[in-house]
Amino acid sequence: MAGKGGGPLHAWHGHFEAKRVPEGVWMRCEGCGATLFRKQVEQNLSVCPECNHHMPVTAVERIRQLLDEDTFENWFPDLLPADPLKFDDRRPYPERVKAEQARTGLNEAALVGQGFIKGRRIVFGITDSNFIMGSMGSVVGEKLTRAVEEATRQKLPLVIVSGSGGGARMHEGIFSLMQMAKVSTALGRYRSAGGLFISVLTHPTMGGVAASFASLGDIILAEPKALIGFAGPRVIEQTVRVQLPQGFQTSEFHLQHGFIDRIVHRRDLKSMIAQLIDYTST
Fold it and tell me: Given the DSSP bridges, would you call strands 110-117 and 73-75 parallel, antiparallel or unpaired?
């Protein structure tokens, strides 16, 4: 049994340590609490195989899921935020931006460009909730506006995937709020030119993003159980002091009340967008 100086027990303990499961192999689903094999979840497009909970994915991962391989061309990557208000909460705004850039590998909360979906060329935009909650600052608004204008010029379908829980970015004040009108106006010109805008809402799509371009799609799709709205349900309950309906602000609630057109499982989203482009182009 116990042996001093590395007897059988010491050898058994070393063998146990060598066989320990590496960190990060398993993960827990936030939807049902199940313990899941991480690689299996990733192969399932970050959807829980037990309960179909759609987990958040990064903008880069979303591009890999939706667009044909190696077809995304990133536009305006050098646009960077300024600090017009000299905003400082717990840290100066420029420091916060640099920290987010280092953490996420993104320059800003939006990526825009062109790519192909099942061979169909589109202009594509996406907001990433990992970067200051996907909030819409001046760079996000400028990128999206330029993308819409390019889709208008080239007469291409436009697809924007929204994942923004932060709404307008408070660090930029009125400069951020102005982006709501700027992107919406560009979309109005695009629609007048006969363009097709497919808006995809993911969890969460809130605030100024939900109140502007995300709600202006000719066709609005949403992932299951995504939270979509302006103010959050807790804020609304505390303000109006009423009991909100079951499932308030979820995709399912919005579909029932006609705010969105269809709820689409992540595995079907690419095919659905391609079909919609074909249907509307005939």
Answer: antiparallel
Instruction: Calculate helix-pair angle for 59-66, 266-281, nearest 10 degrees.
Output: 60
Q: Binding site annotation covers 32?
A: yes
Least confident of 10-24, 121-135, 255-269: 10-24
* 12 has binding-site annotation: no
Give CATH 3.90.226.10 domain extents, the chain: 56-281
Does the annotation place 226 within a ligand binding site?
A: no
Are 95 and 130 spatial neighbours (Cβ–Cβ below 8 Å)?
Answer: no
Neighbour-count burial for 108-125, b at 16+ CB within 10 Å, e otherwise: bbbbbbbbbbeebebbbb
The answer on pLDDT for 80 being more than 90 is yes
Instruction: Give the CATH number of domain 56-281; options: 3.60.40.10, 3.40.640.10, 3.90.226.10, 3.40.50.720.
Output: 3.90.226.10
For the entire predicted model, the pTM comes to 0.89
The answer to the question of whether 203 is labelled as a binding residue is no
User: CA 233, 239, 243, 245 torsion: positive or negative?
Assistant: negative
Higher local confidence (pLDDT), 22 or 240:
240
Calculate mean pLDDT across residues 254-275.
97
DSSP letter string over 171-232?
Answer: GGTHHHHHHHHHHHHHHHHHHHTT--EEEEEEEEE-HHHHTTGGG--SEEEE-TT-BB-SS-
Greater confidence (252 vs 233) lies with 252
